[in-house]
Write a structure and sequence with these properties.
single chain; 277 residues; 30% helix; 11 strands; 9-stranded mixed β-sheet; two-stranded antiparallel ribbon; binds iron/sulfur cluster
Length: 277
């Protein structure tokens, strides 16, 4: 099973659920797809064994061949190639590697060169096969790194994808192809709107989903009533507990201190199709 763990907004406890679930299982892949701010390994403490660059292709102009016709600049929707008085200029940070500029060039003046945008790292922690991606500072395209991470998914063990927060392209890229998605939320109005957007996206993508209410007991019952009304399964409620928050702030997981919640996470995992028995 490929299980993605998401949240409409950051700070609701998505990482807490991902790492505590992974550590509660005997054998699993955990992939931190929050490539702009990966933090699963603060808790997993995996021994990193391998690091690999992630590159994208960007255009390179052969000025000997360039006719300064401007067709490439006209084509590019991202303003990544501009026709300046001084000549055609490429802005690599804006390029989406769509390939269109090369196709429209009448004199074969465009070739490709690699540009590094980040890395993926692999390691192990107990029975967890761990991966994380890190987007280079200043880079704006997380999805190629998420794709490179998802290329590591194995079919012989269950995989947990810790999604980026929010409902942007990187969230959609991560959840695409999942067998199930858990949305972690809290019973406050702050994340309610984003949660609804995420739910709509999952419905469109036909990905089954359920909700975990974290820090249950604070806030109101609006999300719970909404889920009941929409017949969205509430998979688990994790009660608000100051000790859990303190453990998180120290980079520690809660499963050793709250084994009953760890057991509930494993039961939930089995119920939605995981292999752990
Ligand atoms: S590859 Fe696509 S996005 Fe990049 S410069 Fe060419 S047309 Fe623009
Ligand atoms: S389309 Fe080709 S020839 Fe025309 S400006 Fe761009 S690189 Fe130069």
């Amino acid at each position: 099973m490929i299980l993605s763990i998401a949240s409409g907004k950051g700070g609701t406890g998505k990482t807490t659920v991902s790492v505590n679930l992974a550590l509660s299982l005997d054998r699993v892949q955990l992939i931190d797809c929050d490539v702009e701010e990966p933090n699963d390994n603060i808790f997993i403490k995996a021994n990193i064994e391998n690091t690999q660059d992630v590159n994208v292709e960007i255009p390179e102009i052969d000025y000997e061949k360039c006719l300064s016709c401007g067709k490439c600049a006209d084509f590019c929707n991202f303003n990544a190639i501009i026709d300046l008085p001084s000549g055609i200029k490429v802005f690599p940070g804006l390029c989406h590697s769509c390939g269109g500029c090369k196709l429209v060039c009448p004199n074969d003046a465009i070739s490709w060169k690699d540009k590094k945008i980040g890395i993926i790292r692999r390691g192990t922690s107990g029975g967890i096969s761990f991966f994380e991606g890190i987007l280079d500072i200043g880079e704006v395209r997380p999805t190629p790194i998420i794709k490179a991470l998802k290329y590591q998914i194995r079919s012989d063990i269950d995989t947990i994808l810790d999604c980026p927060p929010g409902t942007s392209c990187s969230f959609l890229e991560t959840v695409n192809g999942s067998d199930f998605c858990i949305l972690v939320t809290e019973s406050t109005p702050f994340g309610f709107n984003d949660l609804k957007i995420a739910l709509e996206a999952l419905k469109e993508m036909r990905i089954p989903f359920g909700v975990i209410i974290n820090r249950d007991g604070i806030g109101d019952d609006e999300i719970e009533l909404f889920c009941k009304h929409e017949m969205i399964p509430i998979l688990l409620k994790i009660p608000y507990n100051e000790d859990i928050a303190k453990l998180y702030s120290k980079g520690e997981v809660f499963l050793d201190y709250f084994p009953e919640i760890s057991g509930q996470l494993v039961s939930m995992f089995n119920n939605i199709g995981g292999r752990e028995k």
